[in-house]
Design brief:
There is one protein chain. This protein is α/β, with parallel strands linked by helices and 84 residues long. It is 45% helix and 17% strand. A three-stranded parallel beta sheet has the order 2-1-3. Strand 1, helix 1 and strand 2 form a beta-alpha-beta unit.
């Protein structure tokens, strides 16, 4: 179950339209979320566990996969399923 969500923003609350749609759903379900920029992810300031949902662009997921030791999507799926 999702308990917290991180939504990628480009600064000054500039979001992808799809990310705003995700926020709308999270708010309807009373799920806490936090906006984050690339700077925050580069500083390892996101606390991710099996209850965390992340919405982001290619950079965000490639960085997360890299930090979990994943080199491509299939490996990432296997490793992340072990974490979750």
């Amino acid at each position: 179950m999702i308990e917290k969500a991180y939504i990628h923003e480009y600064g000054n609350k500039k979001l992808e339209p799809e990310h705003q749609d995700v926020i709308d759903v999270l708010e309807k379900r009373f799920i806490n979320y936090e906006l984050f920029t690339n700077k925050k992810i580069l500083r390892n300031q996101l606390f991710i566990d099996h209850t965390t949902f992340i919405a982001g662009d290619h950079f965000v997921f490639s960085y997360i996969f890299k930090n979990t030791g994943c080199n491509h999507l299939q490996t990432a799926t296997q490793k992340l399923s072990n974490i979750i």
